[in-house]
Automatic annotation (TrEMBL):
Protein name: Lipoprotein
Residues spanning the signal sequence: 1-22
Keywords: Signal
Length: 164
């Protein structure tokens, strides 16, 4: 279970690196609700990304692992990032991380000190592939493993201001 959780935390922690000054990404500004393109067995999850024009982004991720129709681990992960545009890709770097364990009957403790340290050291790149103004596929990968991509199907969360 720990290996599964640690593997997921490494994939789920959407962390990007900023070497250039933060810049606004008007194409992705706003709040996006995303789900993995391919669901994994025994796992349910979703993520919201809230991109702000000041070069910051906050995310909330919800994850639940189940086995034999029983929840083995359920948690929320909250990460604040700095983001920058780099060519056609974007990078995010985590600046703050917190978590909320909802259910952990096996005491897997997926967020011990070492895991949090490792998670905040990761950088993730992504390239949004827009499918209209309010839908996109976020093609994502880690800086340490650029050939392994994971994809998130995302929809922009419309607000009254965005409807005007």
């Amino acid at each position: 279970m720990n290996r599964l959780v640690n593997g997921f935390v490494l994939v789920a922690g959407i962390a990007f690196s900023g070497m250039a000054a933060a810049s606004s990404l008007p194409a992705v500004d706003g709040k996006w609700q995303c789900v993995p393109e391919q669901e994994k067995n025994h796992e349910q999850s979703w993520v919201t990304y809230d991109f702000k024009p000041d070069g910051t982004m906050s995310s909330q991720e919800w994850v639940r692992y189940e086995e034999n129709d029983q929840t083995q681990l359920e948690f929320n992960l909250f990460i604040d990032y700095r983001y920058v545009a780099k060519d056609d890709d974007y990078m995010l770097k985590p600046v703050k991380l917190s978590r909320e364990i909802i259910t952990d009957p096996s005491n897997a403790n997926p967020f011990d000190y070492a895991t949090r340290r490792d998670l905040t050291g990761y950088r993730i790149f992504f390239k949004p592939v827009f499918q209209g103004k309010n839908e996109a596929l976020f093609d994502m990968w880690y800086h340490i493993d650029p050939d392994t991509h994971f994809k998130m199907n995302c929809k922009r969360q419309l607000t009254l201001a965005s409807l005007k």
